[in-house]
Amino acid sequence: MNPPASRKQISKKWVHYILQENMRMKSNSSTIPEVTIKEFKVGQGTKPGEGYQSELVTLDIIASHNTDDQQILPDVEYHYMIKFFSKEVHSRETNKRYNSHLKEHAIYTEIIKDLNNFQAAITGDKFPIHIPDLIYGKANKTEFILVMENIKTTGYTTNDKYEGLDYEKLKEAIVQIARLHAISYAYDKSHNILQTYPFLEENNEMLVVYECFCIMVLDYMRELFSINKELKYLAKKVEISKDRILMKLKECLRSSENHHVPNCIIHGDCWSGNFMFKNEEKLTCMDTDRADEPRCRVVDWGNTGWGSPIKDLQYLIYVSTTVETRKEHLESILQLYYDTYVDITTRMNVLVPDWSYNSFHREWKNQSVYGFCIGLILNTLTLSKLHPWVYNNQPSVLDNTMCFPTRMLIEGLKLGMYKLMVPIMSKPSAVKHLSGMYKMSFKTTKEELLSGKNKALNKRLIDLFQEADEKGLLD
């Protein structure tokens, strides 16, 4: 049965189909109970202004099951999260261009399952990687849908992005990432991951995107510093060090070419919003059978790739923690990551050459510019309340059925423009023009920064600059 392409196409017939298929997949019997859909409800899966890289919706179902002897069992509730391509043309086509949908589909249907089976056979399942359970999935050049368990209904929540991860949650996230890195490194020694999944290979087109966003934020912050008497010294330092920072950023982004680092599968979008933590306070007495569930699950795998594990670490720590947490706990967090990684590879009898703690820590320092830059970019995108992607994801008058011909015409024009411009704009020679376009698009974010009204955003970015200055990155 053909899957829906968006929430509007979800039908009772399709809901019945995925329930029946899921029961068939999990059943050890040749016969399964017949499902009757009594009620289903489709809702918004993200808060307004979020989820701009995909369309995320909830699906809540009440169903009854009939056994072979016609016995009617009690009604059962199912709670799912469904992921589609984004409705927004640019995001949708970008995901297709960089195979984000194929990566995420492979993660849920094959890769994590293979990695978990691999480590379980050797370690007795001591180091599982935790993700939501997959119910149904399909991905190809034109289609993308993932149906997963909605773990929010079982007591999982994301951390408040404005507060940053505390030490305990940071440790939970670090352990999951260390498992992903270590197990995939070991698995690759006998299975050649890139041969099986060539779309995981690093795409250098993204270098231009990162560079342009970094230019934008550096220029915005230089302007902010220039009007702040106490921070004016940073404006001059940013101006002097900007070109050197960008050059070092590009070197870090090519770090998969560094043979001193044990390359592995990396998450690629490793910030607090993609870790869901078990909130015991939200469980009811009916959920006692879930007491042994993992405390942390990792979601949103569309940026998965093959590269340096240091990237995920820098990303997580500088996007998802406050400077206070870093100053107090950074060294213990790095030690936890290293100890977890080495424990796993040792138990799997896989030697990681030249990977002492000192070597690891040296690579961490060598890629500190990446942490600084990715912190600037992602904190701007995730903490800003006024950036354009927030508005692009809001309901539009064009969603009205009567406006369908107009919407299709506009989307066709956008698609044509995207396909014309992207091959040109992804080249290094386009950096100047593309960064200029970003500055125009994100002018509301610039106004937000200069106004100082978003205190969490301003503090996070200023802290990153002051921290970078202390490390000598701006000298």
UniProtKB/TrEMBL annotation:
Domain of life per record: Eukaryota
Every CHK kinase-like domain range: 146-347
Family annotation (Pfam families): EcKL (PF02958)
Gene3D superfamilies listed in its UniProt record: 3.90.1200.10
InterPro entries (UniProt xref): CHK_kinase-like, EcKL, Kinase-like_dom_sf
Protein name: CHK kinase-like domain-containing protein
Taxonomic source organism: Halocaridina rubra
